[in-house]
Amino acid sequence: MSENTVGNWRGLLAEAHDALRRTVAAVGPDGWNLPTPCEKWSVTQVLQHATGDQIAFAAAITGGAWPSEDPFAPSGRLDGDPVAYLARALETSAAAWAGVGDGDEGVPTPLPHGPLPAWLAGGACALDAAVHAWDIAVATGQPSPLSEEAARSLMTVAAAVVEPLRAYGAYAPALDAGPEAGEAAALLSYLGRCPTWTPAG
């Protein structure tokens, strides 16, 4: 567990939320049905999944409403403005995390792991937002929103939570990033994503 991750999980979560927000806001009107690194899911479906995950983390913490749609079976149909749709979920998530203490060792989560220390629970929420921001960015021709510094911290989180989640289909098997891979490429490969993925394959 790195000191950087422990001390900055709130900043890491805010950065991931902002990356997802900016990426979604930059999707053009013809971008919502494009394919993504999430096999068989469109940009709209990834947005629905990412939004549902943020709501689920908030619901676990506060006892509030859970997502109205299964995040793992997104319909691909979205009524209304996607940016506003995401904004509501991120506001709900941020408000829930604001009530969590930095030293809380048992933060409820929607993960099969159950309650986790605050740094790890918040980091897992950040990991979800950050990787789906990347999915949407590369699907729609945007620059990667994943910084090397954030990826380094998120890798600490991923190493602690991802393996059990693969059995649930949340992450694909890890890929070999190679010895020269940077922090972001190493993280994406560990999460089962090809860092050089493009819509063309």
TrEMBL record:
All copies of domain Mycothiol-dependent maleylpyruvate isomerase metal-binding, residue ranges: 13-137
Coiled coil: none
Protein's name according to its UniProt entry: Mycothiol-dependent maleylpyruvate isomerase metal-binding domain-containing protein
